[in-house]
Amino acid sequence: MTRPPLPDANPATDEAGATPVLAPEVPVIELRNVSFSFGGHSVLTEVSLSIPKGEIFGVMGMSGCGKSTLLKLIMGLLRPDDGDIRVKGRSIIGLHEPELNEVRRTLGMCFQYAALFDSMTVGENVAFGLYRHTRLSRGEVTDIVADCLDRVGMTGSEALYPSELSGGMRKRVGIARALALQPEVMLYDEPSSGLDPIVASVIDGLILHLADDLGVTSVVVSHHVRNLFAVADRVMMLHDRRVEQVASPEELQANGSEVVRQFVHGRPTGPIIV
Ligand SMILES: Nc1ncnc2c1ncn2[C@@H]1O[C@H](COP(=O)(O)OP(=O)(O)O)[C@@H](O)[C@H]1O
Ligand SMILES: [Mg+2]
Known about the structure:
The protein has 274 residues and is an alpha/beta fold. 35% of the residues lie in helices and 22% in strands. The structure holds adenosine-5'-diphosphate (ADP) and magnesium ion.
């Protein structure tokens, strides 16, 4: 089935204003010296990162180190105290809500607890953003919903309610809902948390498959090292409000800092004080 094209939410156009272009060297997501605090309590300090198109970028760190906060900053749901955040080369700092919503349309967010509407069916949950943000016909929406559910291995589950689903199935539906608006970037907050190891691996496979199949850039936030290392091209460790290290999983395993090694091996003693 071919999906009807959705309007490009954030088109960067060429000289003639016709063709969407993004120079390959422009990172899809970029943070430059971003600092953020909640009511005077510093959470992130001078965080910089750059994610090229198609990369699966992992973020790990202790609970409370600011991983979810980082995703909310990228979504423009929180504003940094300092620094710049760019999505496809466009700074989102200072954008007003309508422009921010355009940028958000390019970002598919998968929340930690799937955040499905319990009173809506699976189909209605996946269709929600399409009815809200597009003028597609009912038939077109139905086709897209079926396609997205298909992609996450939930074919034919439209009529079920979230209460009838297992944790892994809810995560899949959350992913399908994020996919419905054809995002260029998928943001996953703790995709494997609360799942048994086998289902967590299935979700990892899905993240990899979607990245390969759709060419989406992915940011995966998790404290499950094994799952993160299985999917990510590069992983960033956040520690003590800062970027501790960014490298491939292999590199982190071979040459991780003391902090990284303690975290990766789950050692109770070391520079990270629990
Ligand atoms: N809405 C909020 N108000 C105040 N503090 C918050 C809020 N949300 C998160 N925090 C604090 O910010 C820090 C980072 O939180 P979070 O990004 O959720 O961590 P993580 O996702 O890595 O577990 C924590 O210390 C947390 O208590
Ligand atoms: Mg979190």
